[in-house]
From TrEMBL:
Residues 23-37 have a biased composition (Basic residues). PANTHER family: OS02G0303100 PROTEIN (PTHR35161), PTHR35161:SF22. Residues 1-68 are annotated as: Disordered. This is Uncharacterized protein. It comes from Eragrostis curvula. The lineage of its organism: Eukaryota, Viridiplantae, Streptophyta, Embryophyta, Tracheophyta. Residues 1-13 have a biased composition (Basic and acidic residues).
Length: 435
């Protein structure tokens, strides 16, 4: 009896040190079937095989193995294949850390360095996104391949004909407003961004490029023919001005207009600014309303007007200099608004005509009030009519979209937003106004 008890205790101790505790199986209970009421057969699963404590778990065994990296590191990066004929050496010294850098590596090793122009000379790495090799250039599309039409002639709402105007019959105000299409705006903005990025890298082509040297890639960016890199030089004020003049000619060819008179007013002011480019005008050219949609233009004006009101309270002398650079002085704007019924209604709203100054300051205030009134439904006209012996009130609600408001203001008072932006830029307040 003692021998049996000692043997059992010794077996328990050895099992405790060499095996894991066995999970206690659940107590089998008989379940009755819903249909017959007889007890169901019990299928007992075999007990799991005990595992030694010193044996590693399956998860730990996998961790001990060499991990398989999702993306190759710089040390185990496979050797890049030799480029095809006519293509320069691909980039190999790129740090790869994660998905983002891997995508950058794939993008930069496609076709970026381009043809060798002379022994040992290829496209610099900081300009490889602006120039395309001959192979890549052939796969790019032309700038005006699918732009038809490029300018839309929209009717100005509320336009009053010359015969019906009051003492303003000699004033020439068009009844249509020229607007660029969305596709043309995107193409022109891509051309402008290409030139600004080239100058940002401290380089210039001295204006030695034309429309046929620029094309659009699949991502919507403009690239120049790589052979033009022979004319690449360090940027200077004169060379950058020549580049902007060439950009002006390219934009005119994209729009399809031979002279500046046939362009929209804001775009015409932008091209004039490009031809007179000087260092420091990059922000003004980038933010200019000439290549903005109508809703963006009105938003820009609201921001600049709020900053102008702040300058009126804090810096009166700078405010007066900005107002002095705006157009439509000497009551000229009061004469022009007589050609539009909606602007005249806002001008005479509740007898507030005397609150507007005769100079450009009054034109800016009317511009702001027109945006607010036409969007809030103040263009409602109530018509009184008699119907079967009694008076019936009938209201006609005129709802304007941002495009129509921009057509009303741009057709009657053209160039106000562009002139205000340039005046703020000359006083060093444009960046603060649009921030």
């Amino acid at each position: 009896m003692n021998f049996l008890t000692d043997h059992r205790e010794e077996a328990r101790a050895s099992a405790h040190h060499s095996f894991t505790p066995h999970p206690r199986p659940r107590r089998a209970t008989k379940r009755r079937s819903r249909r017959t009421g007889s007890p169901r057969p019990i299928c007992s699963s075999p007990a799991p095989r005990p595992r030694r404590l010193d044996a590693p778990s399956p998860a730990a065994a996998l961790k001990e193995e060499a991990p398989r990296a999702r993306f190759p590191s710089t040390t185990c990066l496979p050797a890049l294949r030799s480029p095809p004929r006519g293509i320069g050496k691909p980039l190999a010294s790129v740090d790869v850390e994660g998905t983002k850098n891997m995508k950058i590596l794939m993008r930069k090793t496609r076709v970026l360095t381009g043809n060798k122009l002379s022994p040992g000379k290829t496209c610099p790495h900081n300009l490889q996104d602006l120039f395309a090799s001959s192979r890549e250039f052939r796969h790019c599309s032309e700038l005006i391949a699918s732009i038809v039409p490029r300018i839309i002639y929209a009717e100005v709402p509320g336009f009053i004909k010359r015969k019906k105007r009051v003492n303003v019959r000699r004033l020439k105000i068009p009844k249509v407003y020229r607007v660029l299409t969305d596709v043309a705006i995107k193409r022109c903005r891509a051309i402008r961004s290409w030139a600004l990025q080239l100058h940002q890298q401290g380089k210039s082509l001295n204006g030695k490029f034309k429309y046929s040297d620029l094309r659009l890639n699949s991502r919507g960016y403009v690239k120049c023919r790589l052979s033009k890199i022979q004319a690449l030089k360090n940027a200077s004020p004169s060379s950058c001005q020549e580049d902007m003049k060439s950009v002006k000619q390219v934009i005119m060819e994209v729009v399809g207009v031979g002279n500046l008179a046939g362009l929209p007013d804001d775009l015409r002011l932008l091209l004039q600014l490009m031809s007179q480019y000087k260092p420091g005008d990059e922000l003004l050219i980038h933010k200019h309303p000439g290549l903005k949609k109508e809703s963006k233009k009105l938003h820009q004006f609201s921001q600049m007007f709020a900053h102008l009101e702040m300058l009126e309270r804090t810096n009166r002398s700078k405010y007066q200099r900005i107002i002095g650079r705006l157009p439509f002085g000497n009551k000229e704007w009061k004469v022009r608004i007589k050609s539009n019924s909606f602007l005249m209604r806002i001008f005479m709203y509740k007898g507030r005509m005397k609150s507007y100054e005769d100079g450009p300051e009054g034109a800016v205030k009317l511009y702001r009030n027109s945006i607010q009134h036409l969007t809030k439904g103040h263009s409602v006209r109530v018509i009184m009519k008699r119907k079967k012996g009694r008076r019936a009130r009938r209201s006609t609600l005129v709802l304007f979209r941002y495009q129509e408001i921009a057509h009303i203001l741009g057709g009657t008072l053209p160039g106000v937003i562009a002139s205000l932006m340039k005046a703020l830029h000359d006083e060093g307040e444009l960046e603060a106004a649009l921030s």
